[in-house]
Amino acid sequence: MSLVVVGSMAFDALETPFGKTDKIVGGAATYISLSSSYFVKPVNVVSVVGGDFDQSHVELMHQRGISTEGMQVKENEKSFFWSGRYFNDMNSRETLVTELNVLGDFDPIIPDSYQGCEYLMLGNLAPQVQKTVIERLRNRPKLIVMDTMNFWMDIALDELKETIKLIDVLSINDEEARQLSGEYSLVKAAKKIMAMGPKFLIIKKGEHGALLFNEEKVFFAPALPLEEVFDPTGAGDTFAGGFIGYLASSGDISFESMKRAVIYGSAMASFCVEKFGTERLKNLTQEEIDGRVRQFVNLVAFDTVLQ
Amino acid sequence: MSLVVVGSMAFDALETPFGKTDKIVGGAATYISLSSSYFVKPVNVVSVVGGDFDQSHVELMHQRGISTEGMQVKENEKSFFWSGRYFNDMNSRETLVTELNVLGDFDPIIPDSYQGCEYLMLGNLAPQVQKTVIERLRNRPKLIVMDTMNFWMDIALDELKETIKLIDVLSINDEEARQLSGEYSLVKAAKKIMAMGPKFLIIKKGEHGALLFNEEKVFFAPALPLEEVFDPTGAGDTFAGGFIGYLASSGDISFESMKRAVIYGSAMASFCVEKFGTERLKNLTQEEIDGRVRQFVNLVAFDTVLQ
User: Fold this and answer.
1) Complex ipTM, two decimals?
2) Does the keyword Transmembrane helix feature in the UniProt annotation (chains A, B) (predicted)?
3) Does the structural domain B3-300 have CATH classification 3.40.1190.20?
């Protein structure tokens, strides 16, 4: 049940209608590894940071059973930095600053201790880098889940299509599914995207929940109706971490198990948005997670009169 | 279990990305009564049409057990006419023509045979007209459900607030809930709106499903992921018809029963959008409706590992 997580570790500076932050720790691998650490240990991170990265955050990761042996530290360079501002509806945002820094020439290293991992989570990165990670694993993992973004559809579509041929589960949002497929209907989009390689597709719809498809079936998980979404940064990565973490802990990669994994991912994401950055993901209890999953169960539960 | 349905009966001319229609029969009372007729008989319609209305449609309603005794016919006037065009995403539309015609001075008449009805569905109309209907019923129905639109929030907010004080369930879409409450969060919006009178609130989110609130609980019903939405006209009214029709047939107006009613309403709406106008609502079978409800059950069903 070993898990390897690949992605950025970064600084983010955020503005939401509720306030703004200085540089705080963010990045796909940060959110994914924290979220999955509530389900499986060790979580093995492959990433790259600069000499400026926050050492106390790395210690927190270690305390949560996350290995950073595959995290390269480039002492004389700076960590990836992203700054963005959310609009009032919290569903749209604008990027203010993107500084690639160490991510610009990221050449992922897989420590020997990570070899033989059964579960691989490819967080949002250049598709060529994601592919390199797959190639550098000596045995193909039992399950490869991949997240990506419209950015790569715009500038590296061919490489993206090469990479998604190699994976099992693709996780993207609704607009990205439409862009990748050229179909407005998500049902049609799902068919076209699965024909590109992945046997499973997750379409994230933010506050409107998430859809899980395989060739024959579809499952829908709502998002919890929340009073406040404080900061949506990292919600998709936190979802992915809960999703693959649950699968790795259960060892069951059937469609039925993936449904439960989508619910656990949604529950983790619902915590993430309650505070700025990773704050809410640092000290969750099993009771809190189980309680949140129960809220999902109750949200959609009804008895039918059908036999 | 008698049901009275109030609303427009009209001609619509529609343009969607899939084609356009000449004048076809539409209107809130048309969709609501057809949809509810699959659950309860008689459905008693209160409406007004001109001498130009389609008599064959009235005969279809009679065949489906719908009474039109409360439908006034103004022989020398014209029926309400609405023309609109849907954009590619089918979630937004523009109004091309609105001709109020007979609806301009609609003074609803409640036939004696309708008195004593237990269920009242107030379809979208001027709030003052909706209020008049309540006042003209000698006994207050067991359950009053009301639909309205942003149009009335813009031009008749005070009358709207007076009317919603008198009802049990308000059914509006997400943008209307935000406009009426001044809150972006739907959870906060729901609290404010229920404080205005209704004990229950339904927030319709189109392709993203519907939320049902009471003071303490929330229930979420997804919309079916469909390959094609052919024509969304009347989907909200069809939902309302299935909702109140199911409640009237069961006689149970508890929150648990309303959850099932939301699922039946969603199932009926999923048929409505498959063809232009009321076409798909004319000849459904019980097997088709039950099959559709089963799809909703399966869409959200998962087993948890929680005890």
Assistant:
1) 0.89
2) no
3) yes
